[in-house]
Amino acid sequence: MSSVAFAEAARCLGATARRAGFDAPTFRSPPRRPGVQRSIRRRADGSCIVSVQIADRPLAATIADMIDGIIAANTGPTRSGSGSAKGTAHVRLAELRDELWAGASHLLAADVAESATPRTSDLSIPQRLAA
């Protein structure tokens, strides 16, 4: 995943979360801690920074980590309720996860289409001339 695609995914997923009434964390790459593929840092003001490794990983894995980061940013000690309010929050988060995956589907479809199209450098010389 390129940094441009990562930024596009962050904008798309963040907008989807905000439209659904949830907080959108800040995304960055790579994580500060070596060897981890994702991390979340909670700031004193309540905002979250989700760090995701994008190099040498499948796009779907990166998107999954971003979606999990949004879910995690909207749960936790400051957002936990009790009783039926907590149950309602879990249902809303499950619905948010579905919305985020639906919103990310165009990113995944574009990646599949791009990988299915042969690059000119992958073609033999006669194939390049015919293209």
What is the fold's blueprint, element by element?
Layout: H1 3-19, E1 26-28, E2 38-42, E3 48-52, H2 59-73, H3 83-116, H4 125-130
Parallel strand pairs: 1-3
Antiparallel strand pairs: 2-3
Helix pairs in contact: 1-2, 1-3, 2-3
What tags apply to this protein structure?
131 residues, mainly alpha, 3-stranded mixed sheet
In short:
This protein is mainly alpha-helical. 55% of the residues lie in helices and 10% in strands.
Rg over CA atoms, rounded to whole Å, is 18 Å
Shape: globular
**How are the strands of the biggest sheet laid out side by side?**
1-3-2
**SSE succession:** HEEEHHH
| Spatial separation of the terminal alpha carbons | 26 Å
Could you give the count of β-strands? 3
Point out poorly predicted stretches.
80-84
Helix content: 40-55%
Give a quick account of the main beta sheet: strands, pairing sense, barrel closure: 3 strands, mixed
Strand pairing plus helix content: what structural class?
mainly alpha
Report mean pLDDT, rounded to a whole number: 83
Number of helices: 4
Strand content: 5-15%
User: How many structural domains does the protein architecture include?
Assistant: 1
As an assembly, this protein is single chain
